[in-house]
Amino acid sequence: MTNEEYMQIALDLARQAAQKDEVPIAALIVNPTSGEIIASAANESAHGSDATAHAEIMAIRRACAKLDTTRLWDLDMYVTLEPCTMCAAAISFARIRNLYFGATDEKGGAIISGVKFYEAPTCHHRPNISSGICADECGQLLKDFFKQKR
Amino acid sequence: MTNEEYMQIALDLARQAAQKDEVPIAALIVNPTSGEIIASAANESAHGSDATAHAEIMAIRRACAKLDTTRLWDLDMYVTLEPCTMCAAAISFARIRNLYFGATDEKGGAIISGVKFYEAPTCHHRPNISSGICADECGQLLKDFFKQKR
Fold this sequence. Notes:
Two copies of one chain form a homodimer.
Chain A: H1 3-19, E1 26-30, E2 37-42, H2 45-48, H3 55-67, E3 76-81, H4 85-93, E4 98-103, E5 128-130, H5 135-149
Parallel strand pairs in A: 3-4, 4-5
Antiparallel strand pairs in A: 1-2, 1-3
C-alpha cells in the first residue's frame, strides 16, 4: 500500500470521529514490512473524558498493549495532522521509525511548527518525517468541522 | 497540608514504584480548596506496556475519568520530577492551575529545561510553576534507582 492509501484509511477514521463530534484527527501504526495495521485510533478526548486521548496517544497505547512492549521499533505512524507537543514526544518515546503526516498545524504542531521537538537536545529518538500526505484533504476535514461548530 | 507534605505522599508512591522496578516518579492531582487528592499515580510504563504511562499522564487520565471531564480547572499537580515534553503539554491541555515539582531534569524536562513548553507560542494554557519542593529527596531517589540498575 502507498502512503496515500494508508492516509486515506486514517481519513476515514477521522471522518467517523467527526460524526461523533470529536475533532477529526486519526492515526495508524503500521508494520511497513508486512503492511499490517497494528493499531489505529481517532481523537477520543471528549467522549473518553481524557485530556490525553489524542489519536496518536491512543494508537501508541493500543500498539504497545497489543505487542506487550513500550518500544515500537521498526513501526511507522500515519496521522492526518502534524502532531502536537504531547504527541510528538510520545512518538519519540515509543521509538516510531517513520512519521507520515498530512496537514501542518502552525498553532499547535511540534514537528515543523512550535517547539520543533525533534530538533531539541532533550529529544533522544527522532523519527524520519514525511509531511504533506493528502494534506489538503486532511486540513479541509478539520476546517469543515470547526466551521460547522461555530 | 503544605506543599512539602503533598510531595512526601508523592515520594512514597515513587518509592513503591521503584520496588516494582519502575522508574520512581509519582504525581498527585489535588483540589487545593478542599485538600482532597483527586488522583495519584506513579510511572507505569514498563509494567503497563504503555510508552505514554508516565506518572503525570496516568494521574491526569484518572482525574479526568473520575470527574468526567477533560479540563481539570482549579486543580493542582504535585510531581517528584520536572515533567518531560509529553507531560508538560498534557498538563497544559488538562488546564492544571498550579504545577509543583521536585527535582529538575536537564536531560528530559520541558518546564525550565529543554523546550520550555510553557514559554512557547503554541502553548495555550500555562500553569503557575513552583519548583524545588523536596528536590534533593526526589532527585536522590532517582539517582539511587539508576545506580542500582547499572
